[in-house]
Amino acid sequence: MKKIACVDLYCGVGGLSYGLKKAGVNVVAGIDVDESCKWGYERNVEARFVRADVADLSGDDLCELFPPAEHRLLAGCAPCQPFSTYGRTRQGSDDRWSLLREFSRLVEETKPEFVTMENVEGLASHRVFGEFLETLEECGYAVAHGVLACERFGVPQRRRRLVLVASRIGDAVLPEPDGGSPRTVRDTIERLPPIAAGGGPCDSDRFHVAAGLSELNLRRIRNSVEGGSWRDWPKELRAPCHRRETGATYPSVYGRMRWDEPAPTITTQCYAYGSGRFGHPEQDRAISLREAAMLQSFPSNWEFVPPGEEIHFATIGRAIGNAVPPKLAEAVGRTIITLSEAGRSPRADAVA
Questions:
Q1: What pLDDT is attached to residue 253?
Q2: What is the pTM of this model?
Q3: Residue 105, Cβ density class (10 Å: 0-12 exposed, 13-18 middle, ≥19 buried)
Q4: Residue ranges per domain, the chain?
Q5: What is the pLDDT of residue 80?
Q6: Active-site residue flag, 241
Q7: If DSSP codes are grouped into helix, strand and coil, which group holds residue 171?
Q8: What's the pLDDT score for residue 216?
Q9: Cα distance between residue 324 and residue 321, in whole Å
Q10: Which of 40, 130, 46 is closest to 322 using CA atoms?
Q11: Strand locations in the chain, DSSP E?
Q12: CATH of domain 4-85+96-175+325-346
């Protein structure tokens, strides 16, 4: 019997679940509405995938998923689009605002010993996050939350994320950085075989495949240097928006990564050369799906779809970009295990 059993809400393809499991947490189920994540989740995490809308679940439904265990953990990363920079201009107008409230409701109904959540740093300034904190405190949880730099936890990527750890059996703390030097793009992907933009998948890894480039974009990337962007191009290759003064505020689009630095934040459009600094440091292409996954700290043998199934860049790119980096999740899992070992019986006022 494991010391901690976990159910992962909004699990996606399983980055959070995988990291928690690597730390020693018994992940028993992941819940998500996106059927395209099911095969990859069950294949790699080796836990049950429940296709369901979290809004349709009750606390009793979740309790049935938990096996007998010393402590329970409810984990989740509600889709972050409502809390992004774009979402800030639409506060309260998106149905997805309710996702965190559903998470809060299920915490209140199940009162697990531990809760953890990860999301974009902008969430901290929204009223829905304040409501979530109030619910945790009313249920007797000690809460720690803050913005963590993922590169300080073994993720080869600059990514700042809001992380919350709550405990009903003692104090709550956030994970501490490992103290090592940040991993770089070179450390992570340099050994992968070279491939061409739009070519067939690599013989040894079908996910090591890069999206095609138009003739114009191929000329553009050939005029880009490591760490460079559209500013390296002759004027005739620049997009009209970049020729205007306002275009100067977007220096990273159509950019190449730097070998000896962490990657920029990997997004759902990470396979698209024009969507950010997603150009390979030296090959004339965007990073491959495998490279994007490894820069998110997924293991190099992660499988996203069954053998023989067609690879869709948009679907797999969304799964990669939306995932919690497994290395960050592993650090959170180790912290919760430490809290569990030092814990006491749940607070009486939270049991009632």
A1: 80
A2: 0.91
A3: middle
A4: 4-85+96-175+325-346
A5: 59
A6: no
A7: coil
A8: 93
A9: 8
A10: 40
A11: 4-9, 26-32, 48-51, 71-76, 114-120, 142-149, 160-167
A12: 3.40.50.150
Are 278 and 286 in contact by the 8 Å Cβ rule? The answer is yes
Structure-derived torsion over alpha carbons of residues 157, 160, 161, 164, reported in degrees to the nearest 10: 110
Q: Which of 222, 217, 221, 197 is nearest to 208 (CA)?
A: 197
Please list the helix, strand and coil fractions of the chain in percent, rounded to the nearest 5, in that order: 40, 15, 45
DSSP secondary structure string for all residues of 37-61: GHHHHHHHH-SEEEE--GGG--HHH
Token pair 């950085």 is found at 177
* Side chain identity, residue 19: G
In this prediction, the residues of the chain whose per-residue pLDDT falls under 50 are 1, 82-93, 247, 347-352
In the sheet that holds 4-9, the strands lie side by side as 48-51, 26-32, 4-9, 71-76, 114-120, 160-167, 142-149
Tokens for 332, please give them.
């959170």
Residue 196 near residue 285, CB atoms below 8 Å: yes
Residue pointed to by tokens 């965190």: 100
pLDDT at 153: 97
pLDDT tens for residues 71-130? 999 999 887 554 444 344 444 445 556 889 999 999 999 999 999 999 999 899 889 999
In the structure encoding, which two tokens stand for residue 74, read together?
């409810």
Q: How far apart are the first and last CA of the chain?
A: 26
**Could you tell me if 333 and 23 are in contact, meaning their C-beta atoms sit under 8 angstroms apart?**
yes
How are beta strands 114-120 and 142-149 bridged, if at all?
A: unpaired
Determine which helix (DSSP H) or strand (DSSP E) holds 145, and give its type and residue range.
strand 142-149
Token look-up 């809760």 returns: 115
Among 77, 80, 139, 270, the one annotated catalytic = 80
